[in-house]
Amino acid sequence: MRLLVVEDDPDLNRQLKAGLEEVGYVVDTAFDGEEGHHLGDTEPYDAVVLDLGLPVLDGLSVLERWRRDGRLMPVLILTARDRWSDKVAGIDAGADDYVAKPFHMEEVVARLRALVRRAAGHASNEITAGDVRLDVRAGKVTRDGMTVKLTSHEFRLLSYLMHHKGRVVSRTELIEHLYDQDFDRDSNTIEVFVGRLRKKVDSELIETVRGLGYRIAVSDDGPR
Ligand code: CA
User: Cα separation of 128 and 212, whole Å?
Assistant: First the structure.
């Protein structure tokens, strides 16, 4: 899952990026409203953390422009503790949730996790496909009740496919959502990691849809 953090305070920006990367997200950052707006307008993010008080272009205007232009990614706004009117204005402008400053990283993480899974249509932190169960909060995968050990990258890939199970996900989409801006997009890395997941988790979990991408079949109960 790839996130955008728009925050002009360098320490806070760094802290958010580090905290979100630590729990497995890929994070791009912007330090003013114009840069943030441009990234959110051109890159496909799974969610955005948006400060409201930003130089060049304020956060509320950034959000309004995205929504006006049909950019639908979940947006979590950062507001000042005592400015209730900011929260109302932010929600009205199209924010999905807010966190007041100063915040605990755990709260930002929990709210983002909920936004990302709800945007993908999941009400709970556990997503299942056959006997494979992915716990988004714990960052854990089990098959038939047994823990499957995955690297953080393998987990990210499986998590994205599980969030979007039942749908064909192209390699381009995976690359866009699993790597930051600087990644070499011609690489065959995705295929390699899908191969590893098949080996480690289940050989039939991830289906290759020739010429289109990959799909995890929808089947919540019983064997596939
Ligand atoms: Ca600020």
Answer: 23
